[in-house]
Amino acid sequence: MEQMINNQLSLHSDVATAAAVIQAQNLSLTFQTNDGPVHALKDVSLDIGKGEFVSFIGPSGCGKTTFLRCMADLEHPTGGSITVNGVSAAEARKARAYGYVFQAAGLYPWRTIGGNIRLPLEIMGYSKADQAERVARVLELVDLAGFEKKYPWQLSGGMQQRASIARALAFDADILLMDEPFGALDEIVRDHLNEQLLALWARTGKTIGFVTHSIPEAVYLSTKIVVMSPRPGRISDVIDSPLPRERPLEIRDTPEFIEIAHRVRDGLRAGHSYDD
Amino acid sequence: MRRFGPVLVVVLTIFALWYVSSFLMNRTWVMDQATRAGTDPGFSEVLRETMNQDRAKLPAPHQVAAELYDGVFNKKVTSKRSLVYHGFITFQATMAGFALGIIAGVALAVAIVLSRVADLTLMPWAIISQTIPVVALAPMIVVLANAAGADSLMVPKAIIAGYLSFFPVLVSMVAGLRSPGGMQLDLLRTYGASPAQVFWKLRLPASLPYFFASLKIAVAASLVGAIVGELPTGAIAGLGARMLIGSQFGNPMIMWSALFAAAILAALLIWIVSGVERLAVRVMGGGQA
């Protein structure tokens, strides 16, 4: 009897998380500076469902990175609430609910690529055999098989960033948070990595939060585009993409794609005129 | 040749200046001698005389080289007149002080980085310690070490050498342990890493390039400390004692040869430390850290 209730409870919570993996309610974050308070985020509410690819786009100072860092418990909101997998962001972080990819690859120069990917696994206490198996698997996933013994400086910028994505994937978190991961790369490499990222997302079914400056990148990748505007940082538009999940690079020339890009640009412009 | 060319030019310039200075400084004595003997020597005679005096004000380079060669190769290494004997004694004190300085420097740096209290209390004292002239401190350290039961000069000399060498290690290690940026620390935070893991997996490896860079300065400081420890303390062995003997007995050749022996020892030590550093860089990925 008790067993049945437990099953039902867990079933119920499964349904709840399926509805929203990340849930922000009236989230606010105010930094106190010498020039007075800065409202990095004000009353931001958003639900991110399981398996969604959500991009955050907006001019600098709109709070898109801050929002992502709140999800990761790297910033502490001053108002509202945020839950990740149904628990607080801090608990989710301690439960290793997400992998985080920064703008710079940030690989340790004294560790090989394999050693860098092993870093989270060592910290989380995986067995040696498990570590080796996982390193091999995620290197395969980001197309870097054979580079395990190389040092970061022997790899190009794009390859380093792929290695840092592999590092974030190594411990099987269901959520991947990426803060302008391709911002420092040139357009050709960026196109290639965008394609690879979509393939990776299709294979792993992860929920992805992705901060970017680039309208084409946001439209090409996302199932949901969150347009943000600054002072105070807030959401000005949420666009659910009608594009299919299967997206060749050529999709960027279709009328649908151009229409969404247009709407994103309008949203960005609206947010800007509000400010001036 | 391209690498050694500039070095060679500098060395030749120094030798030329040295010979000219030797001639100018030693000429007075030659002229005095000539006046007393009632002779009037020509330029070439004066030149020859200034280059070969036993107690020249400034011995010429070839004289110092001959004395150095004599002290290193022509004396038994157990002889009190052998520069190898004296050099080895100074070397021992240098190494003991170097080890002491590394241990103290690293330990203090770790304490300062991990504890705010240590940061506020220890760092000012570490800086103050370096403002006290070590020559003034050396005799006190010798007396205290003797009172504490050390029956040789080796212990106080090592302490003085360590006293000078811990500081560069400390300063570099504090900078090195604090070198990981916000992003690196955030990354480990997303893994839920413990403070101990942050230290062992990030701070310590990140500090190693800083550590090895500081070793070259520390080993030179340690040698200076060991020699200074031999100067005002009545030591009878070691390169410092040798310099003191040379000055007390009015024999500049002994002073100069001991000075160059010390310089050669310093060059050897730094060369060895650089080799260790290169090895460490290769083990740690060989990249641009």
UniProtKB/TrEMBL annotation, chain A:
The keyword Transport applies. Keywords: ATP-binding, Nucleotide-binding, Transport. InterPro entries: AAA+_ATPase (IPR003593), ABC_transporter-like_ATP-bd (IPR003439), ABC_transporter-like_CS (IPR017871), ABC_transporter_ATP-bind (IPR050166), P-loop_NTPase (IPR027417). GO terms for molecular function: ATP binding; ATP hydrolysis activity. The keyword Transit peptide does not apply. Residues 22-251 form the ABC transporter domain. Belongs to the ABC transporter superfamily. This is NitT/TauT family transport system ATP-binding protein. It comes from Primorskyibacter sedentarius.
From TrEMBL, chain B:
It comes from the Bacteria. This is NitT/TauT family transport system permease protein. Keywords: Cell membrane, Membrane, Transmembrane, Transmembrane helix, Transport. It is a multi-pass membrane protein. It is found in: Cell membrane. GO terms for biological process: transmembrane transport. The chain crosses the membrane at residues 6-26, 83-113, 125-146, 158-177, 217-241, 253-274. Residues 87-277 form the ABC transmembrane type-1 domain. It comes from Primorskyibacter sedentarius. Belongs to the binding-protein-dependent transport system permease family. Signal peptide: none annotated. GO terms for cellular component: plasma membrane. Its main location: membrane.
